[in-house]
Design goal:
single chain, 460 residues, alpha/beta, Rossmann fold, 2 domains, eight-stranded mixed β-sheet, six-stranded parallel β-sheet, 18 helices, 45% helix, binds uridine-5'-diphosphate-xylopyranose, binds adenosine-5'-diphosphate, oxidoreductase, NAD, NAD binding, UDP-Glc/GDP-Man_DH_C_sf
Length: 460
């Protein structure tokens, strides 16, 4: 097969945007067009001011700046981009279904299906179609069936190429991946995609498998990672009652090279667009094959995560004399982790929801999340009216505005800047006793206690 000359990616989100930017950066001879039906998003990708890109990722502005206009283009003309491409990545969102069969568990594939139908309708030459979104196993089969049955008689080769980038480190993950995984049936199509990655990834790190292994590996990788977080979070609760310190336990077990030291940081709970969704998918697939023990085993990772978020909120309420009604609780952080503006499944949302049920006043500061996003996240839960969310929650642009005169501080995201605040000044402005609930084990206990704070951290 000839080297691909034109790549199109449908979906200019957290996955499609950074991935295509790096592919274009590293393959200057390949023309890469990223399309999205969301006009505002495309306009933001085309913004001359690189600080205004629609997603925040360290280092992404430089990559986009180098390739955009040269061989990287962002457009809303989906049909034209499909028509011209040799290879089409599908990188649209696959949220958990909110209706019908599999509600709350299965992935909603309507966006994928719409893409497939559009490709089938428009394509007049052979295409390699690459699934990049996180998908349940055997989606490729559905994709192939739609393309073959509704297309214009052209050939489609389907590849699965799951993404393993983590938000906040997407650019370095893409530049230096542990591995690239490509699943497919056509050796030629696989080779075409291998060539794209070989522009910067050593060949031995590019793993090729059959389609289903590739699809399943993605779910399993995320399930294993999430399981580590739930495992250490389960131990954090045990530490709190026994006097052990979860950081010390993490360090001690992480030194065992068979266990390894990464992903053992106890927290208020994992979030993000992948972990929960992928495990729910795994659980759904296992149940659909009547593998109940397997399904229940993995489901427990999520139940423990839910428990960790609830437990944190309840700890706050209990410590503040069993009532937070009318009290100001400053939230440091809303994103699901540092260095991203993404809030999907963020623990902060669920902790806030719990406290708002008790009529607390929550004042949110996050360096990268907008007020609109915070309200959207809370309104989406449907727990209370949008008016009540706006009555009880305030979002501020200055951290000291959130902290000043608060009854308590809750750290929900591990942004580095929180460590650098003038905590003596914060203490002077806060109500007494001045509580700090550190859901990320970010701040310095000794320093805060010396300043007179009542400091609580997960797992201590
Ligand atoms: C994850 C996978 O890491 C990535 O490979 C996949 O492609 C997409 O899903 P992401 O969700 O972006 O990436 O971030 P990740 O760094 O995995 O963190 C997920 C959540 O777990 C965050 O809320 C993070 O704060 C939490 N976490 C992670 C912990 O609480 N403790 C840890 O030790 C590690
Ligand atoms: P992810 O984290 O998987 O990248 P995002 O929600 O950030 O998810 O991005 C997915 C993007 O895909 C959105 O910008 C959405 O507008 C776009 N999208 C979804 N369906 C289509 C479609 N049929 N055609 C074009 N763009 C689409």
């Amino acid at each position: 097969m000839n080297r691909v000359k034109k790549i199109t990616c449908i979906g200019a989100g957290y996955v499609g945007g950074p991935t295509m930017s790096v592919i274009a950066q590293k393959n200057p001879d390949v023309e890469v067009t990223v399309v999205d039906m969301n006009q505002a998003r495309i306009a933001a990708w085309n913004n001359d001011d690189l600080s205004q890109l629609p997603i925040y990722e360290p280092g992404l502005d430089a990559v986009v700046g180098a390739a955009r206009g040269r061989n990287l283009f962002f457009s809303t003309d989906v049909d034209k981009a499909i028509q011209e491409a040799d290879m089409i990545f599908i990188s649209v969102n696959t949220p958990t279904k909110t209706y019908g069969k599999g509600k709350g568990q299965a992935a909603d594939l309507k966006f994928i299906e719409l893409c497939a139908r559009q490709i089938a309708e428009v394509a007049s030459t052979d295409k390699i179609v690459v699934e990049k979104s996180t998908l349940p196993v055997r989606t490729a089969e559905a994709l192939k069936s739609i393309l073959d049955n509704t297309g214009n008689g052209v050939n489609f080769h389907i590849l699965s190429n799951p993404e393993f980038l983590a938000e906040g480190t997407a650019v370095s993950d893409l530049h230096n991946p542990d591995r690239v995984l490509i699943g497919g049936e056509s050796a030629e199509a696989i080779e075409a995609l291998v060539q794209v990655y070989e522009a910067w990834v050593p060949r031995e790190r590019i793993i090729t498998t059959n389609l289903w292994s590739s699809e399943l590996s993605k779910l399993v990788a995320n399930a294993f990672l999430a399981q580590r977080v739930s495992s250490i979070n389960a131990i954090s609760e045990l530490c709190e009652v026994t006097g052990a310190n979860v950081d010390e336990v993490s360090r001690a077990i992480g030194q065992d090279s068979r266990i390894g030291s990464k992903f053992l940081k106890a927290s208020v709970g994992f979030g993000g667009s992948c972990f929960q969704k992928d495990i729910l998918n795994l659980v759904y697939i296992a149940r659909s094959y009547n593998l109940y023990e397997v399904a229940n085993y993995w489901e427990q990772v999520i139940l423990l995560n839910d428990h960790q978020k609830t437990r944190f909120a309840e700890k706050i309420i209990k410590t503040m004399y069993n009532t937070v009604n009318g009290k100001d609780i400053a939230f440091l952080g809303w994103a699901f982790k540092k260095d991203t503006n993404d809030t999907r499944e963020s623990a902060a949302i669920h902790v806030a929801d719990h406290l708002l049920d008790e009529e607390a006043h929550v004042i949110v500061y996050d360096p990268k999340v907008t007020a609109e996003q915070v309200y959207r996240d809370l309104d989406y839960l449907g727990t209370r009216s949008p008016e009540d969310n706006r009555r009880l929650v305030k979002v501020v642009n200055d951290p000291y505005e959130a902290l000043d005169s608060a009854h308590a501080v809750a750290v929900l995201t591990e942004w580095d800047e929180f460590k650098t605040y003038d905590w003596a000044k914060v203490k002077a402005g806060m109500k007494r006793p001045s509580f700090v609930f550190d859901g990320r084990k970010l701040l310095n206990r000794k320093q805060l206690e010396e300043l007179g704070f009542d400091y609580y951290a997960i797992g201590e």
